[in-house]
Design a protein that fits this description.
single chain; alpha/beta; Rossmann fold; 16 helices
């Protein structure tokens, strides 16, 4: 398989061309023949024209790539090595939604041939690849894993907005259904991953590794958020405390904030879901999730209290939310907890304007029911700076004074204006 790929006698396909799939597909296409498959015809057409629908990659990333973009199953049949990079979200009850990965497995089941390879990159709970995906492929294809085709798992480590830690510079965890498949899959990824690969002993180990990467981060941020709530009651600035504590060599440098996005705010639920199926109810992980999911309500309550104390007329009050994406300097609004802040404020009949230099207004409206404000006002009762976009870092006292009432509050969730604002009431996590 490996030799045939590098000699372009066989073709690699990536199924799902979002934040994860497209960078992988283009990186491989610099070395071997690639088919980029996505069910969204509009996105496929954009990529054919060198446009990344996720706005993460420049048009130059498409240059000198041997890749064919398609939503046609007949084209996909030409592939021999399939990589699945579809999203794996949770539903409104925080239950894993496996529909995208199941449909991708159905697609593979319709086109896979004897001798082909399938590698899943989508984040799932340990056991999902072999217990949920393989049966779908085999029911449709009539083929048997190991005997007729090979399966592997290699968790994605794409970090939206991060130009330093990319697919080529991050060690890639790989696994396979047998010793032979592990070696082949490792060699294929080594074509593009300069940092090298780590061979996991089993598919389940690789699946679990991905889950705990983000669960660990989630729990550490939850601790910071809980400390922020406690320190606020003591009138202590959390960021000053973290700055002091951070002078110790082994202090882990996490910060409080809203926890959204497709990874940290989602992945832990995959692990707790599987754990519950096995008869164990998670305590620490779900406690962290509860704290982080509750921060939007906590922020809204603090702003409401300030308005009541200084204005009193809640229904006529106006709040500006600066930042709608889930993190700084990206256009990604998936699972953005900023939307929860807006919803909480609107529940109190507060008039809310939203601004963001990266987010798409139509996408926000479709996903969350609100759009970006075209023209900002000069009479806000509060401004909430949710994410530290680079565009916001140069703003000063005069700016916030110009858009707020004299009693206005600036809620600086990530502490980027600490010690810089004196003309308005200042609060941070």
């Amino acid at each position: 398989m490996y030799q045939d790929l590098i000699e372009k006698k066989k073709t690699l396909a990536v199924i799902g061309l979002g934040y994860v799939g497209l960078p992988i597909a283009l990186e491989f296409a610099k070395k071997i023949k690639v088919i980029g498959f996505d069910i969204n015809a509009q996105r496929v057409e954009m990529m054919r024209n060198g446009i990344d629908p996720s706005q993460e990659l420049e048009s130059s990333a498409f240059e000198n790539c041997d890749i064919e973009f398609t939503n046609d199953l007949d084209v996909l049949r030409k592939a021999n090595f399939f990589i699945v990079a579809v999203p794996t979200p949770v539903d409104e009850h925080n239950v894993p939604d496996l529909i995208p990965v199941q449909r991708a497995s159905e697609t593979i089941g319709k086109v896979i041939k004897k001798g082909d390879y399938v590698v899943y990159e989508s984040t799932v709970y340990p056991g999902c690849t072999e217990e949920d995906c393989v049966p779908i492929i085999e029911n449709l294809s009539g083929l048997k894993m190991v005997e007729d085709y090979k399966i592997g798992y290699s968790p994605e480590r794409i970090n939206p907005g991060d130009k330093e830690h990319t697919i080529t510079t991050i060690v890639k965890v790989v696994s396979g259904c047998c010793a032979e498949s592990l070696e082949v899959i490792a060699k294929v990824y080594e074509l593009v991953v300069k940092a090298g690969v780590h061979k996991a002993s089993s598919i389940k180990v690789a699946e679990a590794a991905k889950i705990i990467e983000n669960t660990q981060r989630d729990l550490n941020i939850a601790l910071m958020n809980e400390l922020s709530i406690i320190f606020d009651k003591m009138n202590i600035n959390t960021f000053e405390v973290l700055e002091a504590a951070g002078t110790k060599w082994n202090f882990l440098k996490f910060q409080p904030g809203l926890v959204g996005g497709h990874c940290i705010g989602v992945d832990p639920y995959y692990l707790t879901y599987k754990s519950q199926q096995l008869g164990y109810d998670s305590q620490v992980i779900l406690a962290g999730r509860s704290i982080n999911d509750g921060m939007a309500g906590y922020v809204a309550k603090k702003v409401l209290q300030s308005i009541i104390q200084s204005n009193g007329n809640v229904k006529d009050s106006k709040v500006l939310v600066m930042g709608a994406t889930f993190k700084e300097n990206v256009s990604d609004i998936r699972n953005s907890k900023v939307a929860d802040v807006v919803k909480e404020l609107q529940a109190f009949s507060i008039n809310v304007d939203v601004a963001d230099p990266y987010a798409d207004s139509d996408e926000l409206n479709h996903e969350y029911g609100f759009s970006l404000t075209k023209e900002l006002s000069n009479d806000y009762d509060a401004v909430i700076v949710t994410v530290p976009h680079n565009d916001y870092k140069s703003l000063d006292d005069a700016y916030f004074t110009s858009i707020t009432k004299p009693h206005g509050m600036v809620a600086d969730l990530k502490g980027i204006y600490r010690g810089k604002l004196t003309q308005r009431k200042y609060w941070s996590l």
